[in-house]
Specification:
single chain; mainly alpha; 2 domains; disordered C terminus
C-alpha cells in the first residue's frame, strides 16, 4: 500500500491526536509496556545501555545508579530480586515520564486495555505496514465528523424559529467546530517528545442570528 496515497486521506490528519491521548502516555507505565520490558532485558543482560535511550542524557547518571543498586541487590534472594527489580522499573518509568512532562502515578498492571490505537501503532512499526493503522483512524475521523456535522446541520435548519431552537443550534455548532479544530490543530502541530498532556484553548459560544444567519465569534 502506498503510504503517500494513504496520507492524503482524512485519517492522516488525526493520527497525532489519536496517538498522543492519555493512552499513549499510559503505555509506558504498564508492566508489559516497552519501558519495563526493556528494563527487564537490561537487568537480565547486565547492560544498562538498553534503557538509556528512554531517558534524557542528563538523567543517565540517575538511571545508572539505580541500575547498579538493583543489580547488586537482586542476587541476594527471591524477595530481594523482586524488590530490586521493582525499584529499578519505577525509577526508570518515573524519569521517563518526567521527560514527557507527565506525572508518574505508579506502575500499571500488565494487560491494561489501551484501546485499539496504541496496539495498532506498534503493529504498524513491527510489520512496516501502516495501512491498518490509517484505516482505523480514518474510520473514526469520518464517523466523528459525520456525527457532529449532521447534528449541527439539522439544528441550523431551525435555528431562526425561536430562542430554544437557536440555543439547540449553538449546542450542536460548538462541539462540531471544536471537534474539527482539534483534529486539524493536532495534525498540523508537530509533536515534540516531552510535550506532556497539553490542552487546547476553548471557544466562546457563538451568537446565532435569526433565519439564515450564521453564528459568529466561536
Amino acid at each position: 500500500m502506498n503510504l503517500g496515497g494513504i496520507l492524503g486521506s482524512a485519517a492522516a490528519a488525526a493520527i497525532i491526536l489519536m496517538l498522543t491521548a492519555g493512552g499513549a502516555l499510559a503505555h509506558c507505565d504498564t508492566l508489559d509496556g516497552p519501558v519495563v520490558s526493556l528494563a527487564k532485558e537490561a537487568l537480565q543482560k547486565g547492560d544498562v545501555n538498553i534503557v538509556l535511550p528512554w531517558v534524557a542524557a542528563e538523567k543517565e547518571k540517575e538511571i545508572q545508579e539505580a541500575f547498579d543498586l538493583a543489580a547488586a541487590v537482586r542476587g541476594k534472594g527471591t524477595k530481594e530480586k523482586e524488590l530490586a527489580d521493582r525499584f529499578f522499573f519505577e525509577t526508570l518509568v518515573r524519569v521517563h515520564r518526567e521527560g514527557e512532562g507527565a506525572p508518574f502515578t505508579g506502575l500499571k498492571p500488565a494487560g491494561l486495555d489501551l484501546g485499539p490505537a496504541i496496539p495498532a501503532a506498534d503493529k504498524a512499526l513491527e510489520t512496516g505496514q501502516p495501512g491498518p493503522l490509517l484505516k482505523l483512524i480514518d474510520e473514526k475521523v469520518h464517523a466523528g465528523i459525520h456525527k457532529y456535522y449532521t447534528e449541527a446541520r439539522e439544528k441550523k435548519a431551525h435555528a431562526g424559529h425561536n430562542v430554544e431552537a437557536g440555543r439547540a443550534y449553538v449546542q450542536a455548532y460548538v462541539p462540531y467546530l471544536h471537534f474539527v479544530e482539534r483534529l486539524y490543530n493536532d495534525a498540523a502541530t508537530p509533536i515534540a517528545h516531552g510535550a506532556g498532556e497539553g490542552g487546547h484553548e476553548g471557544h466562546a459560544a457563538p451568537h446565532p442570528e435569526p433565519a439564515s444567519g450564521e453564528p459568529h465569534g466561536h
